[in-house]
Structures are given as C-alpha cells and as structure tokens.
Amino acid sequence: MPAPAPESASASTPPADPAARAAETVARLSDEDLAGQVLIPYAYGGSATQVDAGAIAGNRSLAGVDTPAQMIAKYRLGGLILVSFTQQDPTGKTNPTSNVEDPKQVRALTAGLQEAARQLPAAAPLMIGTDQEYGIVTRITDGVTLLPSAIAVGAAAQPVLTEAAWHAAGRELAAMGVTVDFAPVADTLGVAGSSVIGSRSYGTDAKANAGQVGAAVRGLQAAGVSAALKHFPGHGHTTGDSHEELPAIKQSLAAWKAQDLPPFQSGVQAGAGVVMSGHLDLQAVDKGTAATFSHKIMTDVLRGQLKFTGVAITDAMNMAPAKKWPAGEAAVRALNAGNDMLLMPPDIGAARDGILAGLKSGSLKRERLVEAVTRILTLKFRTAATPQPELSVVGSAENQQAVAALDAASITVLRGRCSGPLVTGPVTVTAPSSRGLARATLVKALQDAGVAVQAAGGAEIRLVGYGDKPVDLSPDAAVTVMMDLPGLLAYAKSPTLLATYSSSKLSLTALAAVIAGKATAPGKSPIAVAGLPRSACAK
Length: 539
Known about the structure:
6-stranded parallel beta sheet
C-alpha cells in the first residue's frame, strides 16, 4: 500500500519566503493600506495605549488621535520611529518629544505597537526604528551597553572589533523591539569637517570608513536588526546643516566617487537593509535638487549603479529642505524619486492624502507604490524571522566585554608618554559644568584602577567634549582629554594630550587604565589635528 501523500499547506498559511509573502500581502491591500505602509512618523507617549494629557495633546495635533496605537490604526502605518530630545544632540530639532526611558519601558512600548499593527489588514510587523548611532546621537541610554562614537571606532581601526560591538548593540536593540537602527553613519568627513556630522563619522579616509561601515552592518544584521546607511549621498563634505538648509556637495563627480561613495558601496555589499536619503544637493549629479527628491540619485545611482535592492527611507520630512512643498506634494515627490518610506512627515494626514490624490491623478503610479510596499514588507518579514532575544541580554557582561575591547583599542595619545603611568601622585579631575557625569565616571574609574584622586591640589586631568571651545581648556592641566572630535587639542598646553572621542562609561574606564599605566593607547586619530601627530605612540 503506497504511503499517504503529505498534506498540502493550508491556503491560509503564508509563504515562508519573505519576498513571496510580501507579494501575496501587497496583492490584497487597498490604496489606503499601501499609503499607510510607506509612512514612518513619530508619536507622543511612552506606551502604545496609556499616555498622559501632554502626550494626548501632542498626538491630537500631529495625527488627530490620542495614542500611538490609535495612530497606527487610523493611518494603517508601516512603521514608527522612537525619539528622544537631548540638549547637545545636533539632530534634536527634529525630535520634539521623548518616548524612550529604559529597556523595560521600550520593550513594553514596542510590544504594544506591534499588537496594534497586527490588527491592520496587512497583518504585518511594524517597522520600529530609532537613531541609535552611539556618541552624541543616542536615543536609548539608560541601562544599555553604550558603544563609543563612530570617530572612536575609526581611531581603533579594527573592523573585527567593530563587528563584535555592533552585534552586541544589535542584540540589545532587538531585545527592546527595535527592528531598524538608523546607523551606521556612512559619511566621510572632509578636511574642513561637517559640524552636523563631526564625531558621528568614522573619519576622513573613505577606504577605512568603508571597512568600518561594512563591519557595523554585518554585526547589526546578524542580530536581527536592519542597518540603515546614512546620509546618502554623503553629508561629510558639506558645511551646511540639512536640518535648516539645503547643504551643497561641491566635489567633482570623480572626487565624490572617491571620497563619499566607498562606505555606502561597502554597506550595500554587506547587505544593509535600508539606505537613508539625505536632504543634500549633489551638484555633480543633480544640481539644485535635494537627493531625497532626485530620481537621478535615488534611482539611477542608488539602484542602478550601487545595485541596492532594499528599502530607501527619506531623512526626516520635517526638516527644512523637505518642507519646501506641502506635505502631500513632498510625499509624492520623494516616492517618485525612488524612496520607499517617508520618515517623520510634518503632517501625517496630509502626507497620506497626498499619496492617495497622486494615485487618483496619475502623478504617482500605483506600480511605484506597490514596488515600495513590497520592498518594505519583504524587509519586515525577513527581520521578523529572527527570534527576539530576552531583555536580559541588555547590558550583559558578554556585551560589555565586546564593546570594552573596542573602547580600549580607540584610546589615543597625541602628546605624552607611551607607557607607564601618565601622571605621578594624586590627581584632580576637572571639567566644564556640563560634564559632571563624565567627570564623576572618570573619578570612579581612576580610583578602581588604583589612582589616588582628590578634590583639589592633585595633578589636573581636564575633560572636554562636544561643543566645547578653547576657553573651556585649563592652561594648568597636566593632562587634557578630548571626548569628541580631537581638533580642540591643538589649543591645549598640557604636556599630555589624550583622545577618547567619547564620554561613555566604557570609554572612560579604558582611559583610566591608560592613565594608570595598566594599558597602552593603540588608537590613531582618524582626522588631522593641527600641530599634532595622529598618535604619539601608535605606528
């Protein structure tokens, strides 16, 4: 008797292949469902369903609803971005609220958001993004393992350590329910630097940056979080701030290809799920048009030349260059250029209605919208296939160890001794008043390393960081430490100059070990500092 034939899968069982499942889902979605899938706004409130009066007022103003869950339901959203505002964040102007506190709260929030998304006709996972670059742009800080800034990673110059650290970061983000991290920054700094990018970049060497970007992408995505390369086609050779104006990329086409393109190319080849378009005027390709709205850049270059097949997301649509047009028109223009998702539209209803009106008038072809949503759903189904880690991985000893190795490799001596204790006798740590936390962190780390620390009268160790000026230096300091771009050290008179490029706890712990003579400083500055070598010690 022949063996019974295997039972066929139920007709209601979705295909296992993410692309096939996406195509099947898109085929049954209405225009309203499709329009909602390309929107990724922010919302007010630290819970999907329970928010205070202030958050209700914010959500009503933004979307005519009370809660984030209601926003998802009303607009059939494809994604949501988690935001926070801090005073020293150069991207803070686009983040008018904070909806993240600590890992436990974030996981509860994201679980509630996903529950709301499951009720939609698409029944697809929600894309939950955040800007967790580390360094000065870090949304979730409490209780997580903080990586050093990108410029510190560039100083370490060890992609193997980069990949391990970003894998740790990815596990923590995945545990909190984040599915896409708007990182790494793939911008290469010009010699003049870009003030809005600064230490968010790996440095001025495009080839070295390419290695770091590829490593970060591999680390993140191996943990089940999509990486997002930004800000395409490159924000590092600009002087303007795209939050306020349309910065120009003025290099020749050959120079742009040599100086800006390699890290994006590397990230795409490493399999990055997302590329973020910048509000940037690449004059050699499409002069006068922000890349976000340029078909030549977002389709001809990104898709045609770089062969990128993932999801293209705009930079925040509430930034000045994107508000040149009403929200609905801007949405259609961005989609027609080749973007698949619209980040933080200033008016969610107007953006959605503009897309629907574009479909009706023919200014937006339905095929273009279907293409965008198919890419979005494919990425979301693929990301969701990785099981969510337990919250216990956040801040774990294993993750701390991986990141601490990267921090230790980044510490740089630009002037001073290369071995043994860098100061003798007791020390006194000073810093501008805004750096109280970093000062206290270093004091404890020095004490743990066996260095005597006293409130006054010891050899002065001066900490300076992001936004500080020459006036913030101390002329009498025995040691000056820069916790951001090291350029300020050119003005320092101290016999010993060090860079951590970062003020995280693990960076300052690594610094303490060098000061105590228990570790050497293998890092080399990824940018030139006037009158100083890249390192006084590392060859």
